[in-house]
Amino acid sequence: MSLVEPITIRFGIVGCAEIARKVSRAINLAPNAQIAAVASRSPEKAAAFAKANNLPAEAKIYGSYEPLLDDPDIDVVYLPLPTSLHLKWATLAAQKKKHVLLEKPVAVTVAELDQILAACEANGVQFMDGTMWVHHPRTAKMREFLDDKQRFGELRTIQSCFTFAAPESFLKDDIRVKPDLDSLGALGDAGWYGVRAILWAADYHLPKTVVATPGSVTSDRGVILACGASLQWEDGKSATFHCSFLTHLTMFLTAIGTQGTLQLNDFIIPFQEHEASFSTSSRAGFDEQVTRWEPGPRQEVVGIDGVPQEVRLIEEMARLVGEIKVGGAGKVDREWGARSRKTQQVLNAVKESIEKGFVPVEIA
């Protein structure tokens, strides 16, 4: 538990993407954060965003990005920009001593992310990506189950999936299908979650090899619309994931151990905001007549105590920044950047495997 007195951390939002609406609500709800400014490519668009999303009346409006980065009243910059713009603006934000909350996928390549992380390191600022579900209290409860050698045993297999059926307008015009803006397509947008979930279940140990599943779908502009891959660890663990813009909304995660199984069907966004559940089974078998399981699976429900996962993300970022403001750059938590980097490594390996004809790619 932190001994630092709570400090209100001032956020600046750079870019008015759709996801920024959800994050601005979270900042408004977080007790240790406030929105101090918003920037867009025009002052009119920034002002319209501020009004539509109930930003504080004192929040500053900027008609371009760099003046917000120069604002001495800003502690943290939230960047929901197209992925191809992350390197420029995240690096510049860090150089101007702003802590960086970066929307996923965090970069086009690992090399780009390394430049961002190096800028954050050199300037003593915190980095965190915008993956929300890892901050949900359900995630901590699931971790307890996976770490229980009696109930779960040793992790052997993981499966994850995130798909949604995007409308034709999305497939034609959305930023996430434009090669000059988000060249990773569904792999970066939806696949990020599946890969992060696999790494989370594996306690962030990287696989040895990754091989994309034949049958990936790309647009006529060469952007991935659907793909999957299998991952293999040196100790024999394996995992698979699938992501798509082309099939019905699905988001499941399954982790199978030698003694138990964890399953849930809403790991990214819970079915209900006020609570979330997951299913566990341990040492299961069949009854004598082989008509039912003994023991059956157990459903565990976790409440949020009135604090949604995206608010918890903001609270954690603000807490870390508050500790840095008091204790200096030595308080920077580098684990968040390391987790983002590992996720990016796997994404890029999958893309490389697809481009080389679905061959195995080793993770360095």
UniProtKB/TrEMBL annotation:
<protein>
    <recommendedName>
        <fullName>Gfo/Idh/MocA-like oxidoreductase N-terminal domain-containing protein</fullName>
    </recommendedName>
</protein>
<dbReference type="InterPro" id="IPR000683">
    <property type="entry name" value="Gfo/Idh/MocA-like_OxRdtase_N"/>
</dbReference>
<feature type="domain" description="GFO/IDH/MocA-like oxidoreductase">
    <location>
        <begin position="141"/>
        <end position="262"/>
    </location>
</feature>
<dbReference type="InterPro" id="IPR055170">
    <property type="entry name" value="GFO_IDH_MocA-like_dom"/>
</dbReference>
<comment type="similarity">
    <text>Belongs to the Gfo/Idh/MocA family.</text>
</comment>
<dbReference type="GO" id="GO:0000166">
    <property type="term" value="F:nucleotide binding"/>
</dbReference>
<dbReference type="Pfam" id="PF01408">
    <property type="entry name" value="GFO_IDH_MocA"/>
</dbReference>
<dbReference type="Pfam" id="PF22725">
    <property type="entry name" value="GFO_IDH_MocA_C3"/>
</dbReference>
<feature type="domain" description="Gfo/Idh/MocA-like oxidoreductase N-terminal">
    <location>
        <begin position="9"/>
        <end position="128"/>
    </location>
</feature>
<dbReference type="InterPro" id="IPR036291">
    <property type="entry name" value="NAD(P)-bd_dom_sf"/>
</dbReference>
